[in-house]
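Practice problem: Glutamate decarboxylase
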Amino acid sequence: MTVKDKNITEVIKLATPTREEIKQVLNQFVDEMLTQDEQLKAAPVRKPADASIRQKIAAKPIPREGRPLTTAVSEMLTDIYAYGDNMRHPRHFGFVPGPSSLVSWLGDVLSSAYNVHAAEWTVSPTAVEIEQKLVRWFCDKVGYGPKASGVFVSGGSMATLTALVAARHKILTPENQHLGTAYISNQTHSSVIKDLHVIGLSDRQIRKIPVDADFRLDVNALKKTIMQDKANGAIPFLVIATAGTTNTGSIDPLKDITAICRNFNMWLHVDGAFGASILLSQRYRHVLDGIAAADSVSWDGHKWLFQTYSSSMVLVKDKADLLNSYYAHPEYLKDLESKHAHFNPADMSIELTRPARALKLWLTLQVLGSDKIGATIDHGVEMTQYAEKVLRNVPQVEITSPAQLAMITFRYAPQNLSEAQQDELNQQISQKMLATGFAGVYTTELNGHKVLRLCIINPNTAETDIKATIQKLTQICQNLVQQHRIAVGQN
Ligand SMILES: Cc1ncc(COP(=O)(O)O)c(C=O)c1O
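Answer key — structure tokens:
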């Protein structure tokens, strides 16, 4: 070894934390994390980043000389991770919360520690085999036959995008792509419109179909619009139905939509990012009867399968549809081509280098078992039904959509306030509740009105949490009404 080589080795070694430092950091943070977890219910659902912490972050330099690992990590714990919404909190009912299991977290830690390169079977055969096994298991839950397959991706947006590329590839040609039209409802998640733009559709090629009184895509309107478009020379090629809309948890009429797609030779994608998990519930899986007819399904692990973020699947009825769109082995990956029909995630999706996202879900299923996960999903459905029961007994509350899957929406509607005042009232109720830190209750809009929305999927949410949240919301409502000297009836 030359003197120069020796220096280089020393410099690299100096920059690497010692074994002891790494163990110390891990012990300390695991301890803190578990303590926090045990005390979650007593903690606020969110810690807003005030001006002082924002200034502190703005003033943080990126140092030219490294600092001790322990110092840098403790600063991250206090200045970064401590802020924002705690999506694992049992009273966080906003968006679709992320009540990730500690087992998923551990699986995530393991997978990133080993930095598994899960693009190709040849490089990571065991991790890729596990992914294939899980994908098959979830395809069975959908009701797909032997030709089905899929891959893990980062989230619902990417899962749908992965499927839509396949749909476009199968049905349209580069020459007629400008005529292709896709159909969604006005309750479809915004990510789907982004995905449609990414595959090259302009707004003029996207039809937003109205919904019925239950927020389900109106099939008559769908059929009529498709026929009109065909008559005008367009090529209807894709319907995106939702199994569990973000606003209300509604499920589009899958069987009727399938019949339309078959009739017009169109691809049916089901966005099950949130709702597909109901397929693991013995008690409620029937609500998705008909889903097996879809050409593709997106299904998030990081929503109702209790995974840490970056966990989603795209499943297709026919593996060939993904391969036809994504198989592209260049000269520098020829060594990885297998003579056997191995499952290569990179041949079926957008990403090449990718983490082994399936392993944390694998670990979760191994440790908790699928029955427990199914029962936990049932718990969410039943807690939401309970919330509806409690809300129905609050005089000024109007249920704007009943408990569906794990979502319910409602609004405080004192009769002597105008609709605009009621909108303002509900917006303020949400803001005041968030400011207390007691519960994460956000708003959405339905039929042009501001409503409050609860998504209840956390296994640790109990009836007492729901009751206390509704009591506090009602109290906030009364205070607001009184402050504004607006007389309302007894609550
Ligand atoms: C129905 C539905 N589809 C798609 C998405 C987007 O998923 P992701 O945020 O994982 O990309 C969401 C997110 O909440 C959703 O609720």
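Discussion: The chain has three domains: 15-44+49-82, 116-360, 372-483. Students who identified this feature from the tokens alone can consider the problem solved.
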